[in-house]
Amino acid sequence: MGPLPRTLELFYDVLSPYSWLGFEVLCRYKNIWNINLQLRPSLIGGIMKDSGNQPPALLPRKAQYMRNDIRLLGQHVQIPVQFPKDFFSVILEKGSLSAMRFLTAVSMEHPEMLEKVSRELWMRVWSRDEDISEPQSILAAAEKAGMSTEQARGLLEKISTPDVKNKLKETTEAACKYGAFGLPITVAHLDGQTHMLFGSDRMELLAHLLGEKWMGPVPPAINARL
Amino acid sequence: MGPLPRTLELFYDVLSPYSWLGFEVLCRYKNIWNINLQLRPSLIGGIMKDSGNQPPALLPRKAQYMRNDIRLLGQHVQIPVQFPKDFFSVILEKGSLSAMRFLTAVSMEHPEMLEKVSRELWMRVWSRAAEKAGMSTEQARGLLEKISTPDVKNKLKETTEAACKYGAFGLPITVAHLDGQTHMLFGSDRMELLAHLLGEKWMGPVPPAINARL
């Protein structure tokens, strides 16, 4: 038997476009590198509050920068990311509480669906400029990911239960314990050490730490493990 | 004759360790990619003030993160960067005004020395491996005298303002002039994206030297 896969935890929030970029890159590499990728739905609002940080978009020059940065990175990483028209309303007013509670419920009951449902929520808010705060919106994303209406509705009912609320809270606190001041964070467990890497732009460094090959953000699929 | 080299402007401050990382990577690629690298000594303090931003190190969790990030990146990029013992005193109290005025004077009078002298200053602040840059004592003294002249003060001010006009809220920024467009990239971690924009090959932060143009 070969060496044991290394565990990577990806803490993310669908409100965060950089989380999407990091998520897709790691999803591409999970079948190439010897890793065990664990997705950890978290609340970026909770992390900001706990760390004393502020969303970068509140600084005008950073907001302006992010528009271009996201656009260029989207092209490079080949993800159809696009700024919503009313960006401030989406990020600062509507938020992502229901969506992240829903993903938490998915992670608890149907973890095999977590990747696809997460992706569909990002596609709504960060590609098609669609709502993710209303129950109907979340159901639509779940169904697009391949969930039956019944399954999706069942999970939606659970989002205001103490179990789900607490699980999201715990995951967010775990990210804070690792030192997060924003998202995404990738936590790599290697040789008894823990490395927390912030941002979608530390994947080449992650490859270096894992002793794996970096083939850019869009690695050839033929290298996939069978 | 081949296509014209594309101009890249690197705005940096020796107070910024991420500026050092970006600087070294671009210096390695300047003889590999078809680019004309122009070094622009700037004042990070001025950029913070003008943009309303704050040094990240003022947020405790960011300061803690930076220590590890710089250490790991230093290993990956192969630069002997190390956090100074009294980091806050260095960054927030001492600052870099004289050093950046000195580099501005170098850029005005001995631009061919700018790369080496910049590196030497980073070595002093951000490493323990300082060496001499090769400037004669006379040359250095002459430049030192110029740092409080209006010409040098103004030039540093202008360069810093130029960075702000490009939208900087921190350093380093790399400004790439391509096909009539201008792209401002912030941070030392946008070099692979820069390669993509230039249509050049990214070979990691330590490219093989044999690919260097002769």
Give the oligomeric state. homodimer
CATH topology of chain A: Glutaredoxin
How are helices and strands ordered from N to C of chain A?
EHEHHHHHHHHEEH
Shape of chain A: globular
pLDDT < 50 runs, ≥5 residues of chain A: none
What can be said about this structure in brief?
The structure is a homodimer. Chain A is α+β, with helices and mostly antiparallel strands.
Overview of the structural elements:
- The structure is a homodimer.
- Chain A has 226 residues and is of the alpha+beta class.
- In chain A, 52% of the residues lie in helices and 12% in strands.
- Chain A has a single domain (6-210), classed as Glutaredoxin.
- Chain A has a four-stranded mixed β-sheet with strand order 2-1-3-4.
- In chain A, helix 6 crosses helix 7 and helix 7 crosses helix 8 (149-158).
- The longest helix of chain A has 18 residues, at 60-77.
- Chain A is globular, with a radius of gyration of 17 Å.
- Chains A and B meet through helix 3, strand 4 and helix 10 of A and helix 3, strand 4 and helix 9 of B.
Topology of this protein?
The structure is a homodimer.
Chain A (H helix, E strand, L loop, with lengths): L5 E7 L4 H13 L5 E7 L2 H8 L8 H18 L9 H8 L2 H13 L4 H13 L8 H10 L4 H10 L3 H16 L7 E6 L2 E6 L4 H8 L16
Parallel strand pairs in A: 1-2
Antiparallel strand pairs in A: 1-3, 3-4
Helix pairs in contact in A: 1-3, 2-9, 5-6, 5-9, 6-7, 7-8
Keywords:
homodimer, 226 residues, alpha+beta, Glutaredoxin, 4 strands, 52% helix, glutathione peroxidase activity (chain B), glutathione transferase activity (chain B), Glutathione S-transferase kappa (chain B), EC 2.5.1.18 (chain B)
